[in-house]
Amino acid sequence: MKLGLLFFLILFGLETIMFFFLHSTLVESRVEEELIALQTRGNSHRAILEKHFDENTISHVALMESEANTDVVITNSNKEILGASVDSSLIQRYIKRPITSSIRKGKTIEDNWKKEEYISTVSPIEQDGVLIGHVYMFQDTAWIQSLISRLNKQFLIAGFIAVIFTITIIIFLSKALAKPLIKMKEATSQISSGDFSVSLPKTGDDELGDLARSIQLLAGDLNYLREERNEFLSSISHELRTPLTYIKGYADIVQKRDLSPEERSQYLSIILEETNRLSDMVKNLFDLARIDKNTFDIKKRPIDLKEFMKKIETKFSPAFTEKGMLLSVNCLESITISADASRLEQIIFNLLDNAIKYSSPGDKTTINISRTKKHVIININDTGRGISEEELPFIFNRFYRVDKSRARALGGTGLGLAIVKELVHAHGGTISVCSREGDGTEFEIVFKGETECENNTFG
């Protein structure tokens, strides 16, 4: 209603101003036309009288005007009336008005049609350059006022139609604007109450349409975040409960039962293993929390990948050998990148740890380093069990694990790949995965090429 009222006041004000100026212009133009016509008629009579300035011609001119809606008065040079088509008492005061100058084309002596009974013009009659009389022409203003009155009525009708038309347009326009806005307000109220299943109608490609799509997108994102939060809380409660249950259970056994040294050592080993698992999980959660708060330090230094990968191979080969697997690193040339060495090692470690967990004895994991003009590419390829196509879009989500059984034999918390993704992005790189169930998995990390040494903070 406020929007419609504002539009109405603005449009009504503009229409009123436009009608006022149009009306004034038309009235002034119409009066001017009447005065010009009156002057032209007086000049025509003057032309005749200059040729025949006698009693018969004067009477003939007066007789002609008596049949018209205009009147004529003919005087001599001393303003004595020689002939008239109107009662001289009505026009005597107009004739007595002084004429300051004699203008051949004539002049207007009265144009106040609102207050005077007549509008009037005068044309001089001359013979051989000598003034011998005047032709006064009169137009009854009642006729002009009647004409203006009819014009006013037409303007009132047009104004009324314009107002009705304006109100109709404003009603439809206000509804067209307010209806989607009201729905958007209801949608935002629905979102604020925790219901993200909002649906807004398509309103086109204008600003309202963009706003509706933004609200719809916001609702989808909030719903996704809620689901992520719920899944996160469910996952973390499960992941924390499992090692705590093992620790508590085996601690009770060690404390309450009379165990042999071998059994006690076995149970303490399990407690230590679960404690380490719990410690790793808390550390990973702490790292993710720091990343989310943009307080995760990335201290970049130039790294020679050839030497770096030799150290990686030396450090991780025993773990692969113990499982009956093979680790191969291929970096044929010296390639330098700017990165945080400890964080880069953490990235490689998490990916290699996944390769070990999801591969079998006899499988092979290969690390290939290559570069283009602008990028350095690290490919980690294993011949393990692979990942199904349905699982691929979610493997970087927190607490997501391909193995739904969460078997202890495989270990892990589902946080490793989430941390890898965040660390790669913190270095300004990208990570992608390609896999087929039963045919192995390949992770590809793309970093920018050699850059200047710098200290950065993630975010």
Automatic annotation (TrEMBL):
User: According to its UniProt record, where is this protein mainly located?
Assistant: membrane
The molecule here is called histidine kinase
Biological processes per GO annotation? cellular response to phosphate starvation
Against Pfam families, the record matches this protein to: HAMP, HATPase_c, HisKA
Q: Which residue windows are transmembrane per the record?
A: 155-174
Q: Does the keyword tRNA-binding apply?
A: no
Q: What class of enzyme is it?
A: transferase
Q: Where is the Histidine kinase domain?
A: 235-451
Q: Tell me which domain of life the UniProt entry assigns to the organism this sequence originates from.
A: Bacteria
Query: According to the UniProt entry, what is the EC number of this protein?
Result: 2.7.13.3
What the entry lists under InterPro entries is as follows: BphY/WalK/GraS-like (IPR050351), HAMP_dom (IPR003660), HATPase_C_sf (IPR036890), HATPase_dom (IPR003594), His_kinase_dom (IPR005467), HisK_dim/P_dom (IPR003661), HisK_dim/P_sf (IPR036097), Sig_transdc_His_kin-like_C (IPR004358)
Task: List the molecular function annotations (GO) for this entry.
Answer: ATP binding; phosphoprotein phosphatase activity; phosphorelay sensor kinase activity
Identify one Gene Ontology CC term for this UniProt entry: plasma membrane
Q: Which Gene3D superfamilies match?
A: 1.10.287.130, 6.10.340.10, Histidine kinase-like ATPase, C-terminal domain (3.30.565.10)
Keyword Oxidoreductase on this protein? no
User: Which terms are listed as keywords in the entry?
Assistant: ATP-binding, Cell membrane, Kinase, Membrane, Nucleotide-binding, Phosphoprotein, Transferase, Transmembrane, Transmembrane helix, Two-component regulatory system
